[in-house]
Amino acid sequence: MERVMTTERTTAETLAKTLRDAIIRFSRRVRQARPVGDLTFSQLSALTSLQLAGALTPRELADMERVQPPTMTKIVGKLEERGLVARTPHPTDGRQVILAATDEGRAVYAFNERARNEWLAVELERLTPEERETLARAAEIMQRVARG
Amino acid sequence: MERVMTTERTTAETLAKTLRDAIIRFSRRVRQARPVGDLTFSQLSALTSLQLAGALTPRELADMERVQPPTMTKIVGKLEERGLVARTPHPTDGRQVILAATDEGRAVYAFNERARNEWLAVELERLTPEERETLARAAEIMQRVARG
DNA sequence: CCATGCTCATTAGCTAAGCTAAGGACCGTG
DNA sequence: CACGGTCCTTAGCTTAGCTAATGAGCATGG
What we know:
Two copies of one chain form a homodimer.
Chain A lengths: L1 H31 L8 H13 L4 H8 L3 H13 L3 E5 L7 E5 L1 H11 L5 H7 L3 H19 L1
Antiparallel strand pairs in A: 1-2
The structure holds a DNA duplex.
């Protein structure tokens, strides 16, 4: 029992390091392939959450995206500058605002949903179906871990 | 054939989005769990590469880490401030320097190799062996994709 | 030996995004 | 009404990503 736990622990630690390294390299590579002017990871992720949820308060969006509210204020500020997100007063609470994707934001979201020229999608296309399946499963596991 | 390719393309695009979302959430979560004062992802990754390679020029390290040289200059500067990395003149080229981990840097690396209290390692320990295997395989695939 | 083109690392300047602390407006409750 | 709590934003700081520029140094050809 002690030996089994030690083995699992060693495996988990090695995996933690391996995963961290892989993610940082992968993320950098994807970022480098992003055309200048396109939305950043954080912006696109926020827009996606907004689109899927319909409308959210900044607090809700920050929680969903796993950042603190001031960070989300900044990200949303950028999206708003680009006309992709709009704010309206909250119906019942004067402290709050409601964020929602604009028509243009929805168009950008839809475009990203089917970005045929995107470097990452092209690279993933070159993997075997098994490898893609592995990545899909890993993504699901990571989302679960991130939710805590 | 056309249908198969369309299916693969759709799958790859969906996977690209899924993977991006998972990675950004996961990365943020791991970052939030990092004790104040610990090395950042980028710093730890650079230190790891240095440790494993023994010694590198800034250019080599930047290439290995997939960033531009000025970025690596900054990251290394931080590591140097903390006494984890040292510079020596290049033996034959006056333009270059050699970077290597210090004794302290090696100790930090070794500590991170077996960080038993690290949040991520603890979380990974709670997964099934199959799930860990999936993540390990995914990490390998991501490294390969990142190398291009 | 000299001129030239190239390479190296760094600095400068900018952007983005992460955090905590603080401030002001607003809400809910006793 | 007073108070405690919540909301979003601003302020201030850090880290890290990029491109452009700079000055030192190297390699090569004449």
